[in-house]
Amino acid sequence: MKHSRLISLFAVALLSSSCSVQAEPEVQVQWLNDSTDRDAVGATWGTPWPQGEVDAASEFTLESESGTSLPVQSWPLAYWPDGSVKWTGHAIAPLELNVGALTLTPGDAVRSEQSLLIVENNGSIRVDTGVIQAVIARSGDRLIQSITRDNRQTLNDGRLVILSQNQAEPEVGQPLTVESFTGQLDQVTLEQSGPVRAVVKLEGKHVGENGRAWIPFVVRLYFYAGDDSVRMVHTMIYDGDQKTDFIRGVGVRFDAPLDGPLHDRHVRFSGEGDGLFGEAVRGITGLRRDPGKAVREAQIEGRATPPLSEWATSVSDRLEMIPAFGDYTLSQLSADAFEIRKRTQPGLSWLDSAEGTRSSGLGYIGSPKGGVAFGIRDFWQSHSSQLDIRNARSDEAEVTLWLWAPEGRAMDMRFYHDGMGLDTHEKQLDALNVTYEDYEPGFDHATGVARTSELRLWALPATPDRQTTVELARTLAQPPQMVARPQDYEAAGVFGAALWDLPDRSTPAKAAIEDQVDFYLDHYLTQVEEHNWYGFWDYGDVMHTYDHDRHTWRYDVGGYAWANSELSPDIWLWYSFLRTGRADVFQMAEAMTRHTGEVDVYHLGRFEGLGSRHNVKHWGDSAKQLRISTPANRRFYYFLTADERTGDLMRSLLGAERRLLDVPPLRKLNRPTPDFSGKPYSMMMGLGTDWSSVAAAWLTEWERTGEPAYRDKLVTAMRSVGNFDHGMLVGSAALDPETGQFYRIGEGVSVSHLSMVFGGVEINAELIQLLDVPEYEQAFIQYGRFYNAPRDEKAEIIGQPYERNLNLGQAHSRMTAYSAWKLNDEALAERAWEEFFSGRAGIPVFGSPYPTKTVMPPEVLSPVTEARGVSTNAVSQFGLAAIQVMALVGEEAPEQVPERD
C-alpha cells in the first residue's frame, strides 16, 4: 500500500526526537508572484512545521540565498497535540521582490536596526514605522487622527462614511432622502506591537445625525517597520431593514493637506495594466502661450516647476486666468468600464476626462513636497467602486475611497421574488422540486451578512514618477504574499496529511487524472471572466449549475445559481494550491474564502453563526446551516496567511451549534422532536455536515490555543460516536454541547450522501491523525467501507439489509480509499479506483483533454466556453476525489484509464 512517505515522516520525527544530534528543521519560502516590478511593502504569512520538530518557545531566523539574515517577527498560529508548533506566523519589513527564496529556521531572531515604536495613552495609539508616524484614536469618529512623514502631515481625520437612502431608486411623487452616517468607535485593541509588525483593531458602528447607530464595522490597520504604507482591512456588517434601508455609499474618507502652487499639485489615477491618468490641478500645457519647455516637462513629470521668474511672462502673468480643477472622480460601475471626470468646483459642470475598462483602483493627490497615494484592492472586481478627490484647490483636499460607489445604483438587499404564495412547508417543498430553491418567508433577509475589503494608503515624500505610480498600483492589486513550497507543506503533514500529495504523472492513468484536474481549475478561472462573476456582494463565488440551452449558468434559477460553498469548491481550490503552488489558484481561493466567510454567513441576528444554502441571492435560501459557515472552509487561508479577520470568523463559530435549537435544519420534514426535558443533552445533530462543522470549530480553537477543554470535548464526542452500535452510520444523535457527549436516540442505520462532502472527509481525517480514539477511527473506516459497497456487503457490515441507493458514488470513492489505506486492503483499494473511474453521480475520466466548445454570437452576447457535464458540485468532488484517491491508494491505480461503456 502507498503512504510509506507518511509513515516515514512520523518515524523520522520520532527518531529525531531521540537522537542527541539532529538537523534544524527548515522551510523555504518565496513570493507567490515572482513579478519584481511592484512597490515593496511589509508582508505576513504562515509556515507549517512537522510534529515534534519546533518548540513552542522557539524564535526564528530568516536567511536569504546570499546568506544574509533578515529581521522577522514570529508568533505561533497552531500547535500539534504534543505541544510543538504546527503553524507559525511571520512578518517582514518591505523586501525587494527579486530577493529569491528565503530559508526559515528556528533560531535567534535578528533584530532590526529600524523597529516599530508604539506609544499608548488613554486617547490614542501612536505608531512610528521609522518612515511614517500614525496616530490612531481610541474614541470618537476620527479613526486615524493623522499620518505624518518627514514632519509633514500627509493625512488627517481618517473616518468611515455611509450614505443611505429611503428607496431603491427615484420614483415620481416619492421624495428621495439621503442620510449620512459616520463610523463611531466603541473599542480599539492593539493586537500586535512589533518589532516588525503592528496591528490595531477598531470596532464600532456608523452613527447618523439623528442618533441612529447601525452597520457595525471592524477595521484593522497594519503597519510594518520601514514601510511608508498602511494596509487597511475593512469589514461592514449589514443590519438594516432591506425594504427601507438602501445604502448609497460605503467609504473611507480622510483629509489631505496640500501646499505649493496649484500648478505643482498633481492628481493620478491608475487605469488598466500600466495605464495612468496624470494631470495637474492647474495645467500649463496646451495653452495658447508656451511657459517654456522646462516648465512643461517638470509638470508632466510631477516635479516642482521652475520659479515663475523663469517662465514666459505671457503665461506667468496670467496664471489666475487658467482654470484650476479642484474635484476629480474615478468611478468603476461595472467590471468592464471606468470613467474619470473633473470639475473646477461644486455647482459647475463636470468634464469627461478619460474612459477605460478595468482600473486597478489607485489614486494620488499631492505636490513635490509630499502627498498621499490610496487605493482599493480588487477595485474593478468588486464594483461598483469609486475614488473621489475634492477641494484640491484649497489647503486641504478631501479624499474618499468608496467601496460602494454613490454614483452607481443603491445597494438593494431585498429578495428577488415576492414569495409566490409559498406560505406553507408543503408548498415550499413542492416548489423545491422545480426550481431547487428552498424558500421560506422571513428566511430571505440579509440582516447579518458582511463584506470585507482591503485598502492601502501610502504617505509619500513627493509626487511619484509615472513608473513608480504604476508599481504602487501593482502592489495594490496583488500585494506581495510569501508562501512555502508545495513539498514543504506536504512534509509538514498538515491539512490531513494522508489525503494529499504532490502531482503524480508517472503513469498514463495518473497523468490523465492530473490533466483533468488542471483542466477544471483553468476552466473555472475562465468562467469567472467569461460570465463576469464580479461585484461587491458576488466576487469570489462561482455558480452552481450550467444551462446549456441558454448557454449561461443558471444565475436566475432558484438553488442552481450562486454555489455558496456547496460540495466544497473552497477546499478543492486550497488543496490544489497546496499541491501545485499556482498563484492564480491561490488568488481564486483567497477571493472565495473572503466571500463565503463573509457574505454567505450571518454574523449577527437570528441566524448568527449559520450560512445560507445556494441561491439566486447569497442569503436567500431558507436552509441556514453549519455546513456553509464551517471553519473547514477557512482554515487553509488562515494558516497560510495568518489573516486576523479569518481568525475572528472561525472563533465566532464556537457555540454556533446552539443556533440549531432556533433554526432546526429538518423543520420542514415534520419529524418529531425528541423530549429533552430532564436530559443532559439539548439538541439533535447530524453526524455529517453538522458534526463536522462543530468539530472543525473545536479542532481549530484547540490547535490555535492549546486549550485542553476543546480537545476534551472532541475526544468525548468521538468516543461516544465510536461506541454506538453502528458508529457514524446512525446518521444523527443528541448532543450535550457543554461536554461534547453524544447520545443515541432511536434505532437503525441512516446515511446521507451529503454527510461527508462539506469538509467531513477532511476534518475527520485530521481528527483521526491528531487524536488517538480507536473506536472513532473504526467507525469512520466502517463508514468508508459501507457507503459504496454492494448490498450484500452492506448487509454484512451492519448485520441487517440496507436497500437504499446512495448518491455521489464517485465523491465517496475517496472514503473507500481511506478505509483501504487504513486497513492495508488491496481489494478495497481496487474497489476505490473502480468507483472513481465509474464517474457515478460525478464525472468520468476522459483520458484526453476535456471536450469543450466555444459558443459564438448571436447565440450568446459574447463568446463563451462550454464543457459538457460540468457543474460545481461534480467538479469540486471530482477534484477532491482525484487528489485523495491518488494520495491514499495511488500504488493500486491502473496503468491506463479504463475504457468506458
From TrEMBL:
Classification from the root reads: Bacteria, Pseudomonadati, Pseudomonadota, Gammaproteobacteria, Cellvibrionales
Matching Pfam families:
PcRGLX_1st, PcRGLX_2nd, PcRGLX_3rd
Q: What PROSITE patterns does its record include? A: PROKAR_LIPOPROTEIN
Q: Does the keyword Magnesium apply?
A: no
Q: What name does this protein carry? A: Tat pathway signal sequence domain protein
Query: Domain named PcRGLX/YetA-like N-terminal RIFT barrel: which ranges?
Result: 26-104
Q: Which UniProt keywords apply?
A: Signal
Q: Which residues form the PcRGLX/YetA-like C-terminal alpha/alpha toroid domain?
A: 479-893
Phosphoprotein as UniProt keyword: no
- The PcRGLX/YetA-like central beta-sandwich domain extends over 118-473
Q: Which residues form the signal peptide?
A: 1-23
Give the source species. Marinimicrobium koreense
